[in-house]
Amino acid sequence: MMHKTRNKTSIQNLRFTSPSTPKPLVIVTPVEESQIQATVYCAKQHGLQIRVRSGGHDFEGLSYVSEVPFVILDLLNLRSISVDSENKTAWVQTGATIGELYYRIAQKSKTLGFPAGICPSVGVGGHFSGGGYGPLLRKYGFAADNIVDALIMDDSGNIRDRTSMGEDLFWAIRGSGGTSFGIVLAWKVKLVNVPPSVTVFTVYRTLEQNATKLVHQWQFVAHKFPDELFIEIAIMANSSANGNRTIRASFNCLFLGGSDELVELMHEKFPELGVTKQDCTEMSWIESVLYFAAYAGFPNGPLDVLLNRTYTGIIYFKAKSDYVQKPISVTGLEGIWKRIYEEDPLSAQIILIPYGGKMDRISEKAIPFPHRAGNLYKIVYIAGWLEGGTAASERHINWIRRFYSYMAPYVSKSPRAAYVNYRDLDIGVNHQGNTSYAQASIWGVKYFKGNFKRLAQVKSKVDPSNFFRNEQSIPPFTS
Ligand code: FDA
What are the backbone angles phi and psi of residue 450, rounded to the nearest 5°? Predict the structure, then answer.
């Protein structure tokens, strides 16, 4: 199936649209696999680097920016999806977005879904390569936990599936962050059961409405809720009813069940939040996908909004992530509010994503993504802004770096863990081709903990010349 290109650009962070951003020699948009083989062949012949782009959401622009001469291989025309509802699987080409995948699943079934991210324009190429989570993570884990086969092309143009690539490489491509092992052409995923009706709510609480106490309490309960219940918190500065600034916490919920049951559960497990039946809306799972997408800034429209490849809320941004293993004290939270007030209103946001459930039951070695049991929740910090120019960039980036330093005592240590899909070059970079395994371990163990060594060993076998690389790709292993 072939689709027309509808968007003008796949760049999803305005930070990489300035005239000084390095540009590719060419952007190749293949419509068949042989053109990818030709691109790999030519790039090798001419000593060019290849940057593979699926949805273009990489936080640091690694799918379309490089400091050395490079070509972009943009897969947006290779995005066919075939859903087999009987066997509960789907093959999806890596130019597709997660919104397209959700849409095609919903066309076939009202009781099948897939546990991937919230923003529909995110590409399955990068997203599944780095893990990929959304509101179903407590029930079904990450997208990468639900991949059952794949097609990957190596630097000689050979295409291999799970059987012919072998289990080591198949393990390595599910969560290591894209790029390092070749070009993934397609994934085969296992679809998951969802009830015909689910329930959502979003309730807002400001400091005047006890937000500090509620966020504090949430840390003790959210990871212990039944697997069917996911409540994340998005926190930003806001104006209170009397016009003074305040902090507003939005509690966003997806429950795989009905509203009566949800209200009962909330009374039992988290009565302090005061959720009532009026706060709850029942809908199909695919409508809940739209509901969460609208919260993330997508238009609240009919289902085909999910086919829109361009994120409508594109801004300049810098983000970072952390894992929390012990609840943060009230004083610690108050320090966070103070840092949020230091940034421009509406520029700073943090999101707390609850773990537990299925995440606790998957071994940290099952795939390269290792942050499982022992983590209460993940934090993503976002600084977003609308004005261009270096001065603005520096101001906002300095703010988020100061905030990140403040958080050190409250988050995971040795390593201070990070999520590879929230790519952050501040934690360390490879210097074009000459970074040793030991040097790369500085950032590698933050993303992958003990799995980093195995990733480097697989890299040594499948790409010893390090043809597929970027600032945070896996280097070959050296003892
Ligand atoms: P992109 O095309 O930029 O690729 C990312 C990386 O993977 C690059 O290094 C690229 O070269 C490589 N790559 C891409 N396709 C490849 C292929 N076929 N073979 C080999 N390598 C390939 N995450 C999450 O888990 N849950 C969420 O809800 C969200 N939400 C979200 C919203 C917004 C607005 C943004 C900007 C980002 C997110 N993310 C997220 C993070 C997202 O999962 C992460 O940025 C993904 O890597 C993006 O995948 P894309 O294919 O869109 O990016």
Answer: -65, -15
